[in-house]
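Worked Example 4.2. Consider the chain below.
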Amino acid sequence: MKYRRMPIEIESPEQMGYGNIECNLTESSFSDAVLGNLDLSLNHLVLCYGDHMGKPELRELIAADIGLAADDVMVTAGAATALFILSTSLLKSGDHLVVEKPNYATNIETPRAIGAFVHFLEMRFENEFRVDIDELENMITPDTKYVSVTCPHNPTGTMLQKDELHKLIELIESRRTILLLDETYRDMAFEEKLPSAASLSSKVISVSSLSKTYGLPGIRIGWLACRDRTLMEMFLAAKEQIMICNSVVDEEIAFRFLEKKKESLPQIKDKIQKHFGILKKWIGAENNLEWIEPSGGVVCFPRIKPDCSVDVEHFYKILNEQFKTFVGPGHWFEMDRRYMRIGYGWPDTDELQRGLNNISKALRSAVG
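Applying the procedure from the previous section yields the following C-alpha cells:
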C-alpha cells in the first residue's frame, strides 16, 4: 500500500493546535465530552485482552439499537478503523469500486493506497447533493466490489429518503455487489431517522461510531455491522491482525455511556437545533453564500456564489490569519475551494456566532 497524508488531517485543528484557533468551525462532531461528567468508576476493570469482536454487552446494546443480533456487530477503534478493515479486506490493486463524492477522505484514500480504481458518483449542488441512483446503476460493473455511500452525508448534511434507501439496496442486490453505508450521523437526523441499512439486507455493511453524535472521539469506539457471516469472519481476521482487540478501557466507557444514551441524546439534539437555527438565519442573510439545507448531522457545505467576484485565497488568508477562524475548505474533499464545510455542533453558541460573523467579514474584505 502507498500511503499519503490527507489535507483534512494535515490541516486539522488538533494538528494546527487548538490554542491557535479562536473560532473552530472545522469540527464535524458534537462538542467533546468530559470524562468526569460521565460519572464513571473503572477501578475494578481488569486490563486484559478483550473479546476480539468487542465486549459482548456493548455489542448487544449496539445491535438492539440497529435491529440486528450481537454477532452481526464488530466493535472497532473508531469508524476509521472499520473503513480501513473493509477496504483492505474487500479490495486489491486494480479492483473497481464506486464512491459518492464529496465524501469523508478515508473512504477514498484507503482504496487509492491499495491501488484500486475509484469511480466517483458525483453529488452536485445543482441536484441538491442527491444520490442519483440511475447514474449509479450505469456505473456499477460486474467487477464492482462495493459502492460507498454516507447518510446523513458528510460534508453536506443531506440525507437519503426512505424510498431512496430501499431503491439503492434493491440495485445493490440485483447487481450482486455490496453497499457500504457510513451511518455515523444516523442519530442526528432532524426528522425520523432511517433504519440501519445492514438490518435491511445481507448485502449491506453499516459503519458508525460514538465520535460524531456523542462527542466521544477520544475513546476511539466505532463498529461495523453485517449479516453475512463469511464477511464478518474475514473482517474479524483483519482486525485480529491489525490490533487483536480494542482497548477494554475504551469499550467499558462506551458500554456505560450507551446504557444511559437516552438521557444525553435529547440535550445533544436541543443544542444542535439551536445552533442550526442560528446557522440558517445567518446564511439567509449572507448574500455571498448559498447552500443546500441539511437534513441531519452537524455540518453543512455552502459555497461562495458563482457570480461573487471574491479572491478565494485572500478570503481564507483573512479568515485564518486575521480572524483566527477556521472552516473545512473545499479541497479537503477534492472540491473547489469556493465550497467550505462549516461545523456548527462542536463550538459553543458564542463561538459559533462569532465564527459565522467572521466568515461574513472575511468575505466582504475579499470581494473585488
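The two ends are 45 Å apart (CA to CA). The chain has a mean pLDDT of 96. Compare this with Example 4.1 before moving on.
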